[in-house]
Amino acid sequence: MAASARASGGDKRQMILDAAVVVFAQRGFHACRVSDIADEANVAYGLVYHYFRSKDEVLDTLFLDRWNILLDAISQIDEKQIPVREKLHAIASFIVDSYRHDPDLMKVIIVEVTRAANSFARTHLGKIREFHRLIAEIVSQAQAEGVFKREVTPDFAALAFVGAIEQVLTGWIFGWLPRGDAEYEQAKALIVETICGGLEAAAAPASARAV
Amino acid sequence: MAASARASGGDKRQMILDAAVVVFAQRGFHACRVSDIADEANVAYGLVYHYFRSKDEVLDTLFLDRWNILLDAISQIDEKQIPVREKLHAIASFIVDSYRHDPDLMKVIIVEVTRAANSFARTHLGKIREFHRLIAEIVSQAQAEGVFKREVTPDFAALAFVGAIEQVLTGWIFGWLPRGDAEYEQAKALIVETICGGLEAAAAPASARAV
DNA sequence: CAGCGGGTTGACTGACCAGTCAATCCGCAC
DNA sequence: GTGCGGATTGACTGGTCAGTCAACCCGCTG
Questions:
Q1: How far is the CA of B37 from the C1' of C19 (A)?
Q2: Which position has the higher pLDDT, B68 or B201?
Q3: Which nucleotide is nearest to A2 (CA to C1')?
């Protein structure tokens, strides 16, 4: 271990980030000390401050790197010419798969940033709201096309969608809900179904009659 | 002020609790010091420790007093012989009205406890899960009656419901959504509509085609 | 092989704040 | 008016870490 670390050369920065994910996920950002990160990374305490200005900046980096990927992915999904339902499914899919691919990182992002309304969610408010805005935009467009009814404001629908996803992820993170590939696939469909079901224009009758 | 405080006699404990709500809501639990609570309450530092064992216990008290009222209210709603939709509306109503009645207290409960997955939500996990369980129970019963379809597990539906409410409250708390009596009434209806719409038996598309 | 400079080390410091405690106050009972 | 006891006061202590810094290591260049 120590040998391979030494052999790997200048990638200590990445080792620190990886270690931070582990200890933040395990004990939480506030409960763990900078020395815990350094120990986990097999690196001296001071090196953390060589690569990062502060403990906060370590978490900021983890969050921003991942969140920007998320925003890009949603933007790309948004540009496609596919039905709303598929767009929302693709978004839910991306997020759920992110969790499947790296549960610890997603746990840290959700628990320590997204849900930490009084600390990191404040400093990254713009990024988080951007996420909400993109979803609201999709809902808004669906309303313009007559696919979604207009009684629900896009902002509101976006928050309900985000709230449902976040809570379900929290359920997996803390073991309140059963995990597994089948559950993940089901969840994607169900979140979309739950939200779209309440938003799609006037159930069947009206549109059926119109056609 | 100081005079009235002195005149009021032995209700210093309540003054401390009230002050705690104000400063916790303003600066957040971790960012404020015990001396801030004492100052806000016009009371000496040490008195906080006469009535409470620790800073944590102050927040615990605020949370538990209110949460137990919430659980009682839901239990009573649950016992009524009314349709699911009305039950869920009554629950959403109670929570939204709690926020309308005392926004600061609800802010503290949601931001510092409910959403604080790594600190207070851990110590009060039982109480929080009890809330989820009561809602899952209502969903489960609706499924048994055939009002809700069975594809969605009760636990999952409960989390989606709770997630939507929590996120909307967060939206109000941080000013992302417009506040006001009209908005509150609309929100109650819309949260229920959004969730029930996705859960009520026989969604439009499939059945429409079948017919 | 001298010595430059970025990478790396870990002991130390300074600030912060929850919680303690000895002293004081004051209403009331006798 | 004496003294008991709970309420109230606020200066002080102890422990905890984030962040600093002076020194060391080592590959590379000229």
A1: 15
A2: B68
A3: C8
